[in-house]
Queue: 3 jobs
Job 1
Amino acid sequence: MKKILLYTFMAASGIFASCNDYLDCEPITSVSTTVYLYSESDLAAYAAKFYNDSENEDNGEYGNILPSHGSGSYNMGLFDDDNGTDNQTADTPNKLLVKGQSYVGDDNLWYKYFRKIRATNYFLQTVIQRFENGEITGNDANIKHYIGEVYFFRAYIYFMALRNLGDFPILKEVVTDDYDAVREASKRRPRNEVARFILSDLDNAYNYMLPTAPVTNRLNRDCAALVKSRVALFEGTWEKYHKGTEFVPGGPGWPGANMDYLKDFNINIDSEIKYFLEQAVEAADIVAKAHPILNNDYAAMFNSVDLSGMNEVLLWRKYSLNSEATSYHFVVSYLQRNGGGNVAFTRSMVDSYLMKNGLPIYANNSDFQGDDSYKNLFANRDPRMDQTILKTGDLLSDGPNLIEYIKKDGQGYFYRAPIFEGQVENGNATGYCLRKGLNTSGSMQTTKESYTGCPIFRAAEAYLNYLEAYYELHGNLQGNCDTYWKALRSRANVDTDYQNTINNTIMEKEKNDWGSYSAGAQVNATLYNIRRERRIELAAEGHRMNDLKRWRALDQVQNAHIQGCNFWEGISQLYTNPQPEDAASTLAKMTLIEYGTTEETANVSSRNDQYAEGKYLLPYRKNKANIGFNGLNWNTAKYLYPISNREFRLTTTVAGSGDFDTSSIYQNPGWTKNDGTLPVGD
């Protein structure tokens, strides 16, 4: 039976009916324990709240945990999560990469995570004891499954905290409102302990959950194993590449060393790295072996309405306009508008795609045709490129609504990227538009609701996690590496001889790929190509920034300038002299105003720009007001987010004291304890 995640969970069994009032209207501390959480349906309904993808933080204890396309939100959902990396960009860069743009207190992540963890702890400390006492009515296997779901969600929330904040309090019970109790509970534990706690929760989730959920809209144990491999790989590589820095417990300058309660803390960092990588290999192998056949149609996993027949998809969100649980997004609506949505791929991303023969584009006999036109650029490339990025002639919709290029057949086609679009949300910054997620049905035309499914967990990630963890652990490609790598290549219809790719990789030519670096130096060709495979397979699925952080791949990003398409050697003609084939009407000609050439407002970067190489579009350099105009610069403090001053004020030795140095919490490296301050060096 397929594992489907329905956005609102109302249709499956009516489980909200019995306890909706409790969940929606009362704080958990005031819920009557004499009537609630004593039945299987109560447990199912409580756990269901954590699946909510609403952006409304009024439901702060619940929701906004798992990836989604949003709840009726005007955005690109999952597919814009990689914006602000070397993979893809909006019209402005990620503030993390620009000096003077990130401040203490911008977002109180600590508080958000605490609220969500509290809701999971309330459930677990209440329900487990009742279940052991035989006090909960219903099917025991199903009851255990819902307990496992909440273990999973607690682990996932903690993983969010680990990635963004590092060291974090380990809380297993609801904390009272007593000041001293809160202060004590707020004490951060070293990140390796937090990661071990997460893995323990995921083990519990795996052991409690069923292989197939009781209803077709919930998590299952394979999801727990996959996320375990993700967490373990993250922590193992974080500790490996940040070893010897203040970002690893016990490293020089680690702020936890200054806390009296951690004075006896000891760590063997190499043993910890080995442990996490071993756990990643083991967990990834479980999922990969359970899903030995990947979905034959790569694109279908992202552009289909129904993902239920796809074994590779472990969990997905269902959207529908034809049910009591109506839910929708606008992803397709944006994509059908000439590939807009303010999601644009970079030249670095495009160049990382191999040829179909498995060779890098610069290799001898690669058969690369150049990048002066979409036709040449896409010729003979890894088919995942065509399934991920739009090219001239691609069908956008079988209806004409708001599509620029309409053939005489009445259908709308992609012709040129909307780089001059007045509305940012409909534009494209680089000339390389997203195709992944595009459904061409006229029923999801621009301005109309979209209802394609959103994949959350895919078995292909387990293959990638295994490859990377195994190689990081052993330094070779033995074990099941050959099987899993070839399976990924075979599904993509790319030559499966990955060793030939490695042998023909010249690292000097891969410098534009930030993922080719760790700690300021390039990695070897084998590890790089494992990372390249991950980059391509998971494009636009929200993994890139976390990957770059755990690899410590941002150190060398100094005065970096993102490039887009080769605009001036050919693609510019699509704007100045458009001649689409069999067009129903003439496309508008556009006047190109290069930055720095006139007093008028520029609409395109200059071909003579020192960073353009005479031909490439520069998304941040057509307007000096763009925060990225002077380049991207990484500050190592930003590997972790700061903790807001609010948390220091609430945890001083004396309540109400302004002496933040007495707080039970320590700040992350490179940040002060005062809101509104920049990291050191910014």
Job 2
Amino acid sequence: MTEQVGKITLDYTHYPGEDFYCDGVIEQEILEIAKKYSPLEFPKIIEERKSWPILYHLSELRENIVDWLPMNKNMKVLEVGSGCGAITGALARKAKEVTCIDLSRQRSLINAYRHAECDNVTIHVGNFQDIEPVLPCDYDYVCLIGVFEYGQSYIGGETPFEDFYKIIKKHVKSGGRLVIAIENKFGLKYWAGCREDHLGTFFSSIEDYPEGGGVRTFSRKGLEDIFKKCGETNYSFYYPYPDYKFMTTLFSDKRLPMVGELSDNLRNFDRDRMVLFDEKNVFDSLIKEEMFPFYSNSYMVVIGEEPDLTYCRYSNDRSWETCIKTEIVEKDGVKKVRKQACNEFSADHIHHIYDSYKKLKERYKGSKLSINKCKLLKETLPCVEFEFVNGVTLAEIMDEYLKKDDIDGFHELFKEYVKRISYGEEWKVADYDMIFANILVSGDQWTVIDYEWTVDHAVDTREIAFRSLYCYLLENEKRNKCDVSRALDYLQIKPEDMPDYQAKEINFQKQVMGRRMSMPQIRELLGQGMFAPVKWMGKIEESAGKDRVQVYEDKGNGYSEETSYFVEDAYVGEHSLELTLKVIADVRHLRIDPAMDSCVCRIKEFTFNGEPIPFSNRKAVTINGRMAGNSMVFATTDPNINVHIENMNCKSENEIWLSMDVNRMDAAICADLENELKRKIRL
């Protein structure tokens, strides 16, 4: 009942014998990647394959959501819904023992192969409800990362989320922590035109899921209401940005985002989206009105003792040698800032920061520019600690001048900046990244708080000042009112010199990223578009109603909205569906969504090139529901029937004929029917 993959044990004691959840043929491709390549090679694979599922399941940025949690090698962790192991590796590195649970054997094998060297991981394959009774109740951490929203599907009943919470909470030891990461139903990205993450539809969560279904996300108040009903009062909210899936920054109630910080909003990796407004500008307005927590795209809740960490930023989407994280911790009212290597390859980079502090301190001794104090800590991975400096950034002060249309004041401040950073220009050391956002101002005290990109040679002050101004303007087009030409005249930079300065900035960015692509570049690589609402009106109207049939074609890159189409007039009666599909030879898999709601379907006729399709044979057909004879039960608003064309006797052009009855039914009833079928199968 067990299988060994490297040092990892897979336990099949509760495995029903088949996977009821699958993303199609792409999962087999991911499994082959996990078998053949090391995680160090995954970034390159992601760039080469240009596939959303591969990015989603294999990106190391997925680990960020749990990496910051205070764990040690004496702790036991339970991960529910471990999937392909996106966060399992991070947990295994930090904890003594990790227990995973996932329904899918194939996904669990992917997890095992990518973490085969971890000797502290056990993966239980099967339904959570079957496995849960045998789990111990002494876990230091229980992690529900992208899982709690499926409480209705996991548990069912009238109060599924409260029941799910109570069931899972009993496995947390006294003094332990339960961790939940979940989308915010009112996340700003949904208002701005992103599709709901689970359903792929516009505004579904904002409208409180009018079409029903087995997935629910919540507002902060909605989550708090669940906790209170369960008698829970000890919890802390955190705000992963842009969201919990590919988090780069973690905010807290003690350290909320500041104006200008939230500019990385175009994160539609899996689907096209609309762009209804500029999210950065709206976020800035919400921050000023102290409304950010309500509109945060995601939440992370730590139930139990509040961690000391109040802020964390990851820079691990760049070269391995420069991957670090920046943390703000607060203990006993004292705040500290830390920068730590994310891996052994970036250890030298941390040591370089400490050396840079000592050199810059000497250069600017006696000037009107202070270098934030820094010390090297003895940690598992190298870490430097800085004093926490109060003040406002120079960028914020400049913004205030522009807001008041005080262009003269702006340029006087810019001149003062140039004067202060030019001190000791002849020294063979310079902070190349001395941008306005990296300088904190408190009265006449200017402090450089980040000097990560210090170089051991002299740099023309004009080059640093130009780059600072260039970065400042790129962040917000409203800043162009500052009269750039006036600043360039002061720096004595002529128009013909501009290409050279811009080329230096491009080279610097290449140095930071190494050979890796940034996440915005990957988004472009995946080809997901952004459209004005008018271009989408036809599709929105086409998608109206629940009695629609959508067909997806997989030609080797998995299913996507871009390779799908709606079948017109597929319904020949209130509950009767008939359709003929022409399928060319390069289609490997075909997915038919018979409705846009939970339903019970009965197949009357199902043929491929005139021959009956053996839909009880999983090599021919799989569904994301339960099958009994000629009937299928779908307890999801996204029912699908997958026809595996590549396993059939194909011609250059093929024909599928499907005739069936479709009865839309309440999701809870369908879930009960599925569970009853599952019970009978076990018997």
Job 3
Amino acid sequence: MPMTQVVESPAVTPPAEPSLDRPRFQIGDLCVYLESYLSADQIREVYRAYQFGAEAHAGQTRKSGEPYIQHPIAVARILAEMRMDHKCLMAAILHDVIEDTGHSKETVAALFDEEIAELVDGVSKLTRLDFRSKAEAQAANLQKMLLAMTKDIRVILIKLADRLHNMRTLGIMAPEKRRRISRETLEIYAPIANRLGIRKIFLELEDLGFAHCWPWRRLLLQRAVVRARGARKELVADVERALREGLEQEGIQGEVVGRQKHLYGIYGKMRDKQRPFDEVVDVFGFRVVVDRIDTCYRVLGVVHNLYKPMPGRFKDYIAIPKNNGYQSLHTQLFGPQGIPIEIQIRTLDMQRHAESGIAAHWMYKTGAKRPSPQNLAADWLGNLLEMQRGSGDSVEFLEHVKVDLFPDEVYVFTPRGEIQVLPAGATVVDFAYAIHSGLGNRCVAARIDRRMAPLRTALRSGQTVEIITAPRAMPNAGWLNFVVTGKARANIRGYLKNLQRQEAEALGRRLLNAELAGQGLDLDRLPEGHQAAYLARAKLPDLATLLVEVGLGNRLPILVARRLMGEEVAEAPLDAEPRQARRLAIKGTEGMVVTYGRCCRPIPGDPISGLFSPGKGIVVHRQGCRNLGDFQQHKDQWLDLEWSSQPAGDFYTEIRVDVGNQRGVLASLAAAIAELGSNIENVQSREKDGHNIRLDFLLSVRDRQHLARIMRRLRQVPKVMRIQRVSR
């Protein structure tokens, strides 16, 4: 039975948590450990930070009952194992001082320095209490941390170490809290560690999250792995021996290690691919570590001579590294007795990078041109800043980040041969935004391997993509339905929001000027001081914000106009006869702040009225539409409209055609519509009786005259019995 079918029973005592007890690590032990790579002066600074932290946390204990200061020391130890600098270790020891004690960021800066204070503040949670939900608070805190990380990567390294120690000691918490923290770890922190190439922390976070979130599933899977390991013990030894002998025969110095896949990785494959344990072939694997890159390819030849490779299961991550800088050769082969095995081949340097990722680069700078974890992390951090600018709030920002944290990659090429790594399912639009946001905003199509392709085309590894742009092109809201990268989604939303603001400002100006025209005024000729006085009373920063509010329908233009002229609403009640304001002319180019009712689908030539819809702007209806409502009850929301003398663009309307059911009739109708320069956006059919059918067409037309010509032409088609325009 597949493991995904296992259900936890509340009536049964869950399995014991994995043994995570570690000997308590004291500050003296930490200082001794630091002697291996830090100077005496730097160690003294770390000890000084400990003294301050111990005093600040005096009297505070963890839920286990131990002094709270033990937690910061443990966090510092994790970072010391990654060979982080002394200021990072000091910030780790002080990371809860601002959040949990009475000390401020300024105090930390005065006692130590601004750099350490910024690191501590970056890790500290927000203290605001006005969040609408726990989800919003979580998103805001993560946003604060991630943005601090863009200034100094050590912020996230401290947070990952903090989360790792908390996960190691999570067993003391209530079950529900354990599950909540574990899910957050699996969804956010483990993927971030993987994104930064810190595999050692990534694997431990995943397995600890698995242990606390699904203890029963982990227990059953662990037992299955133990059984499989016992059955294949001889096989593992045989493969290790064969690999060592093969390397010796070729005179290659290398280390061969048999290893077990981590449990959550196995579980993920079973869950995602809906496979039972027996069908997950790469439970065990082997790693060969050598001295140089060219030796890796020599070892690959040795391995393929020993065992037959599986077709399509070889991956060269040395030539094309993963997006976190990971490099290695991966090959799957038919081992002894036909049992599948996986072998990874890499250099010692690659092994170090695979374990520590960006942290491996912290102690020195490299001028290497190859994509290092450090360089790729910098690219990702730049994308985070772009996503933040395009996001409306912290929750939306976090969703963009989550999308970006789970990439199964595809590798595509620019026309110059540069490699772009994108998540699986990425489209042409994702590719364009990955290169540059300006390119994404102007793209209209693409050439994939020299063949034209639409923007929604999903890309495959190895393709060469050339983006085609147009000067006046702009993002389409429909793109949000198929883009997969957080960067593309954030840029599209940000552009549309900015465009809507611009359009709303222009419409708001037109609306207010139309209301003021009854008094022979406009916004530029208001009595001196009236505008500033109203903005102050309304607590608005400037006129542009007021115009946006009016254009979006959040403030009624008639009321705003009265107050701008110095009138009070009480002196001019809404049920009084309105001033004669000129009708607002609809051009068809107003954009997102003017929409057309789908119930009546007005087109130029129709008598029209408008309603204000808060947050959207004006909704245009045909006069007499039943969805307009009662004028007397909603007089303040009504707006007199007329069409511009030269409306631009196409407008949509719906017609219904009753026609005899015969072969080719739909093609005849479509040809007649196309003949008159209209486009069919949608068509629906239903049978009236055995001989007749009813067709509902959604057409694009220029105006009523254009529609009338189309309807006259359709009446000439044989078997057409009735045509009418539809209102819903």
